[in-house]
Structure formats: C-alpha cells, structure tokens
Amino acid sequence: MLTEERRAFLTQRARQARALTLEAIYRVGRGHIGGTMSIAELLIALYDDVMRVDPSNPSWPERDRLVVSKGHAAPIVYAVLAMKGYFDPKLLDTLNANGTTLPSHCDMRKVPGIDMTAGSLGQGLSAAVGMALANQMDHRDSYVYAIVGDGESQEGQVWEAVMLAAQRKLEHLIVFVDDNGCQVDGFTGDILNMRPFDQKYRAFGWHAIYVEDGHSFDQILDAIHQAKQTPDRPHAIILNTVKAKHVPGAENTYQSHCFSLTREQLDNSLRNL
Amino acid sequence: MLDNMDMKTALGETLAEEMRKNSSLVLVGADLMGANGTWPLHGEFPDRVINVGIAEANMVGVAAGLAACGKLPVCDTFAAFMARRDYDQVFISVAYAGLNVKLIGSDPGVAAEMNGGTHMSFEDVALMRTIPTMTVVEPCDCAQLRQAVKAMLEVKGPVYLRLYRKKPHKIYEDGCRFSLGRADCLTQGRDATVIAAGMMVWNALQAAEQLNQEGIHLRVLNMHTIKPLDKAAIILAAQETGAIVTAENANYFNGLGSAVAEVIAENSLSVPFQRVGVRDQFGEVGGTSYLMERFQLTASDIAQAVKSCLKRRQIH
Amino acid sequence: MKALRDAFGDEILALGRENPNVYVVDCDIGKSCKTLEFARQLPQQHLNVGIAEQNAAGVSAGLATCGKIPFVSTYAAFGSMRMCEQIRQEICYPRLNVKIACSHGGLTPANDGASHQAIEDYGIMRTLPNMTILVPCDYYSCRSLIRAACQWDGPVYLRFTRDPVPFIYRESDQFEIGRARTVREGGDVAIIAAGAVMSLALQACDLLHSQGIEARLLDMHTVKPLDTAAVTAAIQEIGRVVTVEDHNIINGIGSAVCEVAAGLGRGVVKRMGVQDQFGESGPYFDLLEKNGVTAQSIADTARSLVTGEN
C-alpha cells in the first residue's frame, strides 16, 4: 500500500525518533530503553500518517488523541512530539534533569501534546474509553488511540475498560498492544502469560487484528485501515514487537526495560539504526 | 559487610536467612522483585517465591489467601503501588480479615528519583496509618532493616515496612537493638528535639551536628515505628527539651508530623512545634539531593525549623 | 429530617438539567446513591460502568479531559479505597475536573458492616494534593455544597451519608468551599464537627448551655482546604477544642486541627470519632456510642476541658 518513497521516509523518521530518544536517555545516564524502542514505528505511523492533530494547537477539541498507558515510554513520545513541532527539540536535552518539564513518565500538565498522564500501569485504557465516550456523545468523529503494554495488561483494570468499550460499541477507539513479550522481572510468558491477546479481545467483543511484524509500517497501517472499515466494535491491534529493537545486545531481553547505555552502546545503536 | 550494602540486598539476605529457618515464609511480588532484592531468592526457594506479574491488587489478595492457610506471606512492590493500588485489598482482605501479611513498599518519597511524580509516594505512610491494626515501620539503614524485618516477621498482624532500597548512610552497627514501637534516642541534647524516620534520620543527625557548632544541642529521636507511635518518648521530649520538629520524607499531612501533632495537642504540651515535610505537593523527577532541596527536606531545613522554634520559645 | 444522599439525587438532577456537561458515572449502585432519576431523565449524561470502580475513575478522567464535569457516584468505601490509586494518579495528579460523590460515608451503612463502612475515606483524600473535600451535615448545606463543587474547577471528594438527618440550616443558606460555618457562638470551649454527627454536637451544646457553659460550634464542612483562620481563632480565643467526626480519629478533622494547634504551640484538642478500630454491624448510633461519640460524651469531654478535670 505504501509507496517505496513513503516507506523510506517513515523508516527514516523512526530512525530519527530512536536516535533522539537514545541520546536523551544516554545524557541522563539511565532510562526505559526497551519499551520505547518497541513502539517507534507505531508512533511514527500514528503521528505522520494517521492522527488528525495540529501541533500548533495541542488542545484542539477535534483532534485525535493518544493515551500512552505504558507511561514509561514517554521519552520516545516526547521525541516524536518534538519532531512534529509541539515543542523545541532542544528541550529533549532536559529529559529527567532536575526541574525539567519532560519527566520520565507521560505528563499532560507539563508536556504539550500529551493527552493523558500515565505512569502507574494499567490505567490508561480507562481514560481512553472516557475520551471515546465524550467524543461519542458530542458527535465528534475523532479517534482515540491507546498504547498498552503486554505486561501491564496483567492489571485487572485493563479488562474493566475492555468490557465497557465493547458494551458501548466504541468503534472510534483503537488500542495497540505492544506485545514485546518482556516485563521487568522476566519474560511475560514466564511470569504471567497473556497470550493470545487477539483471542482474549475477541472473546470480550472486540474486533482484533494480530500484526505479525509490529515494526512494519505496511502492516501497522494496513491494520489501522482495516479497523476503520469495521463498524460497531472497538479495535485491538496486537503488535508483535521486539523490546529494545535496534539496540545491539539488548533486543528481546527483559533486562532492557531500564538500563544505562554506555557510550559504545549508544554509538553502536546509532550506527545500527 | 553491611557497610557497603544497599538495602535491597540486605533485605534479600535477611529474608533468605529467615526462609531457611521458617518454612511457612513465602514471598509474593508483582514484577518488581528484582528491584526490591527478593527475586534472587527464587533460585533457592522456587516454590516459595511467587511473582504474580503486574497485578498488585491480586498480589495482596493471593497473600491473604496464603495467610489464611497458615503461611507467612511477605509482599513487595514500590511504596506508591503498595499503598494506593492495593489499598482496598490491604484494608479488607488483610487488615479487616485479621490476616498476618507483611507488606514492603520501596522507593519512598524522593527516593523514587527518576521515576518522577507518578511513582513518588508522599502518602503511603499516611494511608497505612489510617488502617486499624496496621503497624508502620521505616528503618533507616541496613543494620536496622535486618532487625526490623525480623521484628516484623515475629509480630502477629499486618505490618507495612517502608524500604529505601539503595545504599544508605550507615547509622547503626550490625546486631543493633531494635524494639517495635519504641523510639531510638540517637543524640541526647536538651535544647530541642527532632523526630525523624527513614532517610530523614541522617538529615536530622547532620542538622544536630550543624547546630552543635552553634551551641544548640539537639535530641534526635529515630521514630522508626510510626504506628503504634511511641507517645511517651514524645511527651518526655517535649517536657525535657521544650521544642519539637518532625522530619519526614512524605506529605506533611497525615504522616509522622501529624501523628506527633496529635500527641502534642491532645496532651496540651504547648511547645513550639514545626513539621519538616513535603507541603502537600506532588513529586517530580530529579536526583535525591535536588529533590530534598526542592521539597525543603535537607539538614539545613531541619536546622532552620529548630531555630525558628527556639525563637518562638524566647518570645513566649 | 432528610438524607444527604437524597440531597445529591435532587441537586445533581437540577445541575444536569442546567448544564449538559454535567455527567453521572455510576458503579451499579445508582438506586442507593439516588441517581436513578438522573439516569431516567438525562440518559445522554449518564453512564453505568458496572461493578468496576477503578474503571469509573479512569473513564471520568477521560471525560474530564474532553470538557465534561463527571460525578462518579458510589459508596464512600469504594470511592476512596478501591479507587485510591486511580484518584491519585489520573485525577489529582493531572488536576482533572472530576467529582467523587460518595454516599454511605462513615459508619452509616450500619447494617452492612465494616466492609461497607468508610471510616478512613476523607483521611485518604486529605493526603492527596489538589483534592478538595466536602463533608456536609444536612440536606440544605449538602445541596449548596454540591452546587459549589460543580462550579469548582478541580477534583472534589463529596461525602454523603445514608440515613435521614435533621435539618440544621434553612433552604436559603449558602455555603462557601473552605469557609467554616459558625453554628453556635460561645467562648468557653469550641466544638469542631462535620457530617452526620453535627446533630449530636448541637445537642451537646444544649447540654453544656444548661450547665452554664457556652460552646462555639463550627461546621467544618470543608475538610480540605481547611479553614485555618477559623481553627486558629478558636485556639487563640478559646484554647480548648473538641473535634467530632464519623471517621477515624487519625487523618481526619481531628488530625487537621491538631496540626494547627501544635503549630501554634498552644491550646488543647480532644479528638472524638472512630477510635482507630474497624466497624461492625449494628444500629448507627450504637456504633457511634461504641466509639464514645454521643451527645452526652461530647458535652462531658468539652466540660472536662473547661473545668480542667480529666
């Protein structure tokens, strides 16, 4: 569906988002690398190709909204917001610095473009459901997108929100499950297995799509397109992703959740992007 | 050995020793067992270390069930989640049900550092203090932690232990005396008293040193048990030193400072009193020393509070 | 006599009719929280999320980001404890305009027992930055304060009780958030109370009056932000204070008043309320009595402060 040129452009943008994120985390010494790298393509696809937003007017009521429920992914969300022009990319230098306005977890009161504060896992989907309900009652055609981690789906509140969204037929709600298979203490399959997500969502009355390669722009965009063609149900897009994607030595390890990059690792990663 | 240890390692070692002695001891965590030093025990005790995943409410419910069957469960996660996410389960399934479950919350207050406002727990002590039958303990270094963990396991009923998990300033020697509910008098001054817990004990001792040079001799009380509170020590301190300052790495509403205020006001002690603590604000990202300055929790802030109390005493 | 939960049912309906952004989020107990009429008349402004309080808090946060004024309606036990983390994280921390409106506060779900009684609810809320806490004592003040909460931009916790309580005020009386109300004037002792126990405090004032002791009775309907001026005046002018609440004596009005008194370095405060113990099933006033809260005991405590006996 994508032209060669467009695909190359998006790939380049994802590369840039990863680089900005890794540099910012390197500067502060330590950070959430694994779970930021696993959603780079998704964020670029959303902001560059899908979402109706106006960076010069971040509180535009008609905008599409994004709730990043896995709030620790904030550094790459900030990077993408900066690339979109929500704020000066120089601000990324202050990630987690004393007195910063760019804290480690998504913060709607400090960062223009962040639609919901998050950080305590398992809560964002409820807020996304609330937004979708408000849009529904105000007859807005805006979409609400949410990114939920596979590990955080172990929180019971996630499934309360899932049930309500189906009950209310929130067809303009699209949830992405970043199924990277890792959580802090181990592989999700070893700690508390959540797979298969698509079957779980379907059993709860959702339209669910499994995406084989969660880093493929074609597959991500195709799934979103399919979702928008399917009425009367909320949509779950399960992205099979790689934790710490493109960080040599850290890919697909749960230890990559939060760690310190060495200068050498940073340089290697930047070369590898 | 303990001198260079971080507190999570001390916690893990102490629990391992106790688990070897007590086969009913079970650890239940929620995907932060690595961070809290309890996950390594899973090698030696594969059946008695249970990681429920990112599901804190379920962790506490499962622990309650284990306790109902005679096990002695110890739960751990970050303080923010232990106090808030689990609150209903701690209240009903543990405390009201009268079950013997121990709760460990790590990264208290500013210690959450780079995790920022969402993870920065300034309210955990307050929330736990409102639960009837709950014991609330905050040790200040590795040696005291070891004793506090042993005491926690011995006492019947729910206990919340507030854990700094990094390398602390050393205050106690290994094997130190520890008595739940009895404040520890660290310096014997008679000019004013600072009542502190956890990380703030070190700041209080630093303040005592600063003031010593100005001829002001502080009594520093380590109020490691915030509930049940050592009222007698507070009353004695008020009578003998005539001024009281509390120091806590928490909201100054409803925590240690409020608990001491209750004793002062109810016993009509009428001494100058000031609370050093977070002034009903949310946290933010930053290093510990920056955050201590930002929220006015430093040794100088404590010294300043003492001086302003002494000034008020002179005026009266 | 009229119940505070009825005041909520009546006022929220009036507010909903006036303002289409006023929204009620129920958690399957609309009947006992008195929101059924709202749901019937204003179905577009009503949502029942089912038995899922944490989700109710999160959904309301989402609604608030889109300009709605959601009132989450549930019991105080669930609205404080079950949602604690969600209120802190998704409502108070981002300072969203969500109202947590809870019936069955304190020991008032008397027969339901300890699991449904909320003896720590506003203590929890008082520890959360950005939270405003309202604990009205009668039907009219309750309606006025619900209206004030709706106009207040930011999180508010409202605590109602289950059973009918006597009228203290007139329909025309207006109440301001953060401003305590002097119910009785007096200079011998101050009684600071809020909520359903106000009528006991008022009876205590009568008992004291018959013994020649004049008590100042303050209605501390706003627990946070506390009217420190009124508390300071009571301590400086009188110096003897009794606090009375249907709540754990820890972390509620008693603790808040102690903080002020200790900070002033003078005065004496006696806290009356739930004695840091769990509730049980039984008639409401018997449960209060088990915690030492009766009109007589309030009067006795106040008198002992005046006479210096203990």
- What class would the helix/strand composition of chain B place it in? alpha/beta
> Sheet with the most strands of chain A?
5 strands, parallel
Low-confidence blocks of residues of chain B: none
Output the CATH class name of the largest domain in chain B. Alpha Beta
**Distance between the ends of chain A:** 24 Å
Main β-sheet description of chain B: 7 strands, mixed
Domain count of chain B: 2
Order of helices and strands of chain B: HEHHEHEHHEHEHEEEHEEHEHEHH
Task: Give the strand order of the largest sheet of chain A, numbering strands 1, 2, ... along the chain.
Answer: 1-2-3-5-4
Mean pLDDT of chain B: 96
Write out the CATH superfamily name of the largest domain in chain B: Thiamin diphosphate (ThDP)-binding fold, Pyr/PP domains
Topology:
The complex is a heterotrimer of chains A (273), B (316) and C (310).
Chain A: H1 4-28, H2 34-37, H3 40-50, E1 65-68, H4 74-84, H5 124-137, E2 144-149, H6 156-167, E3 173-179, H7 188-191, H8 197-203, E4 207-211, H9 217-229, E5 235-240, H10 263-272
Parallel strand pairs in A: 1-2, 2-3, 3-5, 4-5
Chain B: H1 7-21, E1 25-29, H2 33-36, H3 41-44, E2 49-51, H4 56-68, E3 72-78, H5 79-85, H6 87-96, E4 102-106, H7 124-129, E5 135-137, H8 142-154, E6 159-163, E7 184-188, E8 192-196, H9 199-212, E9 218-222, E10 225-227, H10 231-241, E11 244-251, H11 256-266, E12 273-278, H12 288-294, H13 299-315
Parallel strand pairs in B: 1-2, 1-3, 3-4, 4-6, 5-6, 8-9, 8-11, 11-12
Antiparallel strand pairs in B: 5-10, 7-9
Chain C: E1 2-3, H1 4-18, E2 22-26, H2 30-33, H3 36-41, E3 46-48, H4 53-65, E4 69-75, H5 76-82, H6 84-92, E5 99-103, H7 121-126, E6 132-134, H8 139-151, E7 156-159, E8 164-165, E9 181-184, E10 189-193, H9 198-210, E11 215-219, E12 222-224, H10 228-237, E13 240-248, H11 253-264, E14 268-274, H12 284-290, H13 295-307
Parallel strand pairs in C: 2-3, 2-4, 4-5, 5-7, 6-7, 10-11, 10-13, 13-14
Antiparallel strand pairs in C: 1-8, 6-12, 9-11
